[in-house]
């Protein structure tokens, strides 16, 4: 399989970047996109060049750290799919791919395709906790949670913090991510005591990080690899107004 790759190269966030062209004609359709970059990096290293920096960890669609933009598609041209779970059979033989990092003020570029997502970590740190008494853990069956509530909480908790919602939003808003983190804790009994303060702290931190405002276009829900619903945003807005 043959592909022409235009890959964004940038030494650091303060440097100017540009696309670098590579042509590969020995690819397998069963390779994932990160495997293709591994294959390319071996060639670059053997020729004495600087390998392309990109991020990946689990390569199972769980962590989302692999995410970048392929031909304008956030993560992948496939629906609800992370970059690492995108295989070359998703593209046509001989196709040209433009590969670049997620673009957002709050996601400074470390190098090439690697971005700094620590702003999302700081949002979690600002309110992603629950207060519990020290000592022995209570019997699980003593805290009753109905099935529907548990399922909604689990749906919100499925967010992997990849930043795709930010990258696709015209305002670079992190509201889908923040609302998922607010709601999965606030819906369960253990998270109720801090519920009002949590939503204030997390939204305030989101603003401090330089993310834009949500105008509810719904693009975030479309590209989210976990299918997080924008209903979470409406719930968080309501919590914020009531807090």
Number of helices: 8
Structurally, how many domains make up the residues?
2
Gap from first CA to last CA? 56 Å
Classify the beta-strand content into a percent band: 5-15%
Largest sheet: 5 strands, mixed
CATH architecture of the largest domain: Orthogonal Bundle
Judged by helices, strands and strand pairing, the structural class is alpha+beta
Total number of beta strands: 7
Plain-language structure description:
It is a single chain. This protein has 243 residues and is of the alpha+beta class. It has 2 domains: 109 residues, Ubiquitin-like (UB roll) (Roll); 119 residues, Alpha-helical ferredoxin (Fumarate Reductase Iron-sulfur Protein, Chain B, domain 2), CATH 1.10.1060. The chain has 8 helices and 7 strands; from the N terminus they run ββαβββββααααααα. Strand 6 and strand 7 form a beta hairpin. The longest helix has 14 residues. The protein starts with a strand and ends with a helix.
Name some characteristics of this structure.
single chain, 243 residues, alpha+beta, Ubiquitin-like (UB roll), 2 domains, five-stranded mixed sheet, two-stranded antiparallel sheet, elongated
Sum this structure up briefly.
The chain is of the alpha+beta class. Helix content is 34%, strand content 12%.
Note the topology:
Blueprint: E1 3-9, E2 18-24, H1 33-46, E3 69-70, E4 73-74, E5 96-100, E6 109-111, E7 114-115, H2 118-127, H3 147-157, H4 164-168, H5 175-186, H6 195-208, H7 219-223, H8 231-242
Parallel strand pairs: 1-5
Antiparallel strand pairs: 1-2, 3-4, 3-5, 6-7
Helix pairs in contact: 2-5, 2-6, 3-5, 5-6, 5-8, 6-8
């Amino acid at each position: 399989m043959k592909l022409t790759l235009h890959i964004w190269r940038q030494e650091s966030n303060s440097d100017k970047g540009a696309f670098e062209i590579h042509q590969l004609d020995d690819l397998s359709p069963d390779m994932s996109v990160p495997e293709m970059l591994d294959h390319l990096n071996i060639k670059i290293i053997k020729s004495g060049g600087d390998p392309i920096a990109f991020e990946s960890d689990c390569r199972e669609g769980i962590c989302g750290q692999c995410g970048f933009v392929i031909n304008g598609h956030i993560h992948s041209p496939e629906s609800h799919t992370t970059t690492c779970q995108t295989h070359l059979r998703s593209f046509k033989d001989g196709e040209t791919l433009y590969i670049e990092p997620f673009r957002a003020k709050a996601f400074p570029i470390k190098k090439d395709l690697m971005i700094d997502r620590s702003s999302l970590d700081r949002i979690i740190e600002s309110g992603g906790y629950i207060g519990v008494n020290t000592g022995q853990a209570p019997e699980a069956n003593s805290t009753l949670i109905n099935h529907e509530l548990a399922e909604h909480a689990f749906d919100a908790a499925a967010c992997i913090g990849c930043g795709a919602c930010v990258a696709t939003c015209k305002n670079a808003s992190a509201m889908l991510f923040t609302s998922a983190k607010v709601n999965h804790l606030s819906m369960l009994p253990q998270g109720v005591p801090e519920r009002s303060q949590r939503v204030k702290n997390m939204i305030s931190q989101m603003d401090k990080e330089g993310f834009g405002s949500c105008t509810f276009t719904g693009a975030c829900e479309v590209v989210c690899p976990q299918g997080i619903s924008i209903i979470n945003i409406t719930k968080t807005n309501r919590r914020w107004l009531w807090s």
